[in-house]
Inverse folding.
């Protein structure tokens, strides 16, 4: 359940937090006019369409239609509730949320997410203490030293040690009065068969805390110091930890990735530590899972649309298989990746410690693109006999078919043809037969609301002085789109800060963050997205232009009504229904007088 946060605290958080700073943590933004643009973190795109307005404190993606304010960005990006997003921002900007404002029941229902984050932090401190300050930890420290890991690296990555005991961590939490049922949800302890007690998940292992980009501890990895299995053990999926969206070391690497526009992706904890320790600090590691589209979207936010991804894989069959799996992911994520294959018998860890940074970077400069790598691997595997060439083409059919870019696919087919000495038209025919004439479609889904109604709501959001005119003329009564009408009604209802009961304090007429505050009043994601799309524009509004738009809208409605009236009058006359005909003619006269009155009011407004 949600933590109670007072309205004045919400207002203070909103006025203190800078949406550009928050979004910049996961998206590489570039200033364009008044706004910033970057690649959307919520869908794959080639061209940046994700826009952030520092003036209005909102974001909107013109590609996928997602929008909102700083709270809704965190809610979408990290899967947070509104109170959790507000609490996270409060902590970041040093805004105290006093617990005395909570009732006993509200204290009891404190956010589970916050409680799990606190439990993970305690666990990290427990593992750190076990490594650095206990006799049992000396064995683990000796193991790390033997592998060349320095004290600086140990401290930078907050490495720890889980003692061999079955229940010391469980006892540690119990002594602190923390429910083991809660700790179980973090994955740190596991219930015994009798369900009456718990035992530690991690025992006699080096511990690697896993952080998100906001430096929150979301999970742990553990490695044995001998040949027992499993060699690596990770936290299970929790409300904090999703391995398909998490990358080890990203919290440390994000700045270097942004600066270099390059990221190296390894597969293990020690590979990652070796990379960072030897100066390759723009590197991350996957967490016991294949590379996912979510991983690529996260990384593109830091390296930008022209950034480079280098996969550091072993040269064995597993490395080739991993490269094959990655092709479709990189195509969908619009990333051109290269594969760095180290000499046989080496992984990044062992290679760096033996040959050093310069040798590694020299090898990295020769990394192949995925398709050239697969061509090279298939050629070495099958040879250039007739049978070998047939097998090479067979191996390359699926990877080449997976390439969405027609030009790139044709160029790679030409490269393959030259490499194995076969006419490219034969290979092309084989590829087209496999793809079945695959057609790649990109479908952009947009709301089809009335152009007039959308512009009027945009005007209401960006030029508050017109709201009294909108209300006086009952403009919203003519709206056909119920969603836009509802948004307009919310804007009118709260234009002077009245009757605000949810999430926000008063809305000020001259407050540049008014649009963001309006969003806080709305729980419906669709409505928030529409508001963001309408508010993000930079159209300059003034009284004359607003009145002109209103008049155009009224004229269009009048033409529509006149057309309907004419049809009804014609039908009544055709049926010789005198009573209905008189009623319709009187109504038409009343509407005509009303239009004349509005025209006079408009003329007065211009003067």
């Amino acid at each position: 359940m949600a933590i109670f946060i007072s309205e004045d605290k919400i207002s203070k958080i909103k006025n203190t937090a800078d949406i550009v700073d928050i979004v910049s943590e996961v998206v590489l933004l570039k200033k364009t006019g008044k706004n910033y643009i970057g690649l959307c973190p919520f869908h794959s795109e080639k061209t940046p369409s994700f826009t952030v307005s520092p003036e209005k404190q909102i974001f909107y993606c013109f590609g996928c239609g997602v929008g909102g304010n700083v709270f809704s960005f965190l809610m979408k990006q990290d899967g947070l509730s509104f109170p959790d997003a507000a609490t996270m921002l409060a902590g970041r900007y040093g805004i105290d949320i006093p617990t005395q404002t909570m009732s006993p029941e509200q204290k009891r229902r404190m956010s589970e997410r916050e409680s799990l984050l606190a439990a993970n932090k305690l666990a990290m401190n427990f593992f750190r203490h076990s490594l650095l300050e206990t006799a049992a930890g000396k064995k683990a420290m000796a193991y790390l030293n033997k592998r060349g890991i320095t004290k600086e690296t140990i401290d930078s990555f907050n490495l720890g040690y889980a003692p061999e005991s079955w229940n010391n961590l469980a006892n540690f939490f119990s002594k602190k009065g923390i429910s083991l049922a809660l700790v179980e949800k973090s994955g740190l302890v596991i219930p015994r068969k009798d369900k009456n007690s718990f035992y530690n998940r991690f025992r006699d292992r080096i511990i690697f805390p896993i952080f998100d980009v906001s430096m929150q501890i979301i999970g742990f990895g553990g490695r044995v110091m001998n040949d027992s299995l499993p060699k690596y053990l990770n936290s299970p999926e929790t409300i904090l930890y999703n391995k398909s969206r998490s990358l080890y070391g990203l919290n440390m690497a994000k700045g270097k990735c942004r600066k270099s526009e390059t990221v190296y992706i390894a597969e293990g904890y020690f590979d990652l530590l070796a990379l960072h320790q030897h100066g390759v600090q723009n590197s991350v590691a996957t967490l016991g899972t294949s590379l996912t589209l979510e991983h690529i979207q996260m990384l593109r936010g830091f390296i930008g649309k022209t950034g480079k991804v280098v996969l550091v894989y072993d040269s064995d069959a597993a490395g080739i298989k991993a490269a094959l799996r990655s092709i479709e992911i990189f195509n969908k994520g619009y990333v051109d990746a290269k594969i760095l294959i180290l000499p046989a018998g080496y992984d990044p860890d062992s290679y760096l410690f033996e040959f050093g940074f310069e040798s590694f970077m020299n090898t990295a400069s020769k990394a192949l693109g995925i398709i050239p790598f697969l061509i090279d691997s298939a050629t070495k595997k099958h040879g250039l006999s007739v049978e070998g060439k047939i097998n090479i083409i067979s191996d390359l059919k699926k990877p080449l078919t997976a390439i969405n870019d027609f030009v790139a696919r044709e160029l790679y087919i030409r490269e393959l043809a030259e490499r194995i000495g076969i006419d490219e038209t034969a290979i092309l025919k084989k590829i087209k037969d496999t793809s079945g004439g695959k057609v790649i479609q990109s479908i952009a889904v947009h709301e089809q609301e009335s152009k007039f109604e959308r512009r009027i709501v945009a005007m209401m959001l960006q030029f508050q002085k017109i709201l009294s005119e909108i209300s006086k003329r009952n403009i919203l009564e003519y709206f056909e789109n119920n969603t836009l009408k509802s948004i307009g009604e919310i804007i009118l209802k709260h234009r002077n800060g009245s009757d605000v009961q949810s999430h926000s304090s008063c809305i000020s007429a001259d407050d540049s963050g008014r649009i963001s505050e309006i969003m806080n009043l709305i729980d419906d994601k669709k409505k928030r997205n529409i508001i963001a799309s309408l508010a993000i524009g930079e159209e300059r509004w003034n009284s004359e232009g607003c009145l002109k738009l209103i008049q155009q809208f009224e004229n269009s409605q009048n033409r529509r009504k006149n057309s309907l009236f004419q049809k009804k009058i014609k039908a009544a006359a055709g049926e010789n229904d005198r009573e209905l005909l008189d009623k319709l003619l009187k109504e038409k006269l009343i509407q005509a007088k009303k239009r004349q009155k509005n025209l006079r009011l408009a003329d007065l407004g211009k003067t």
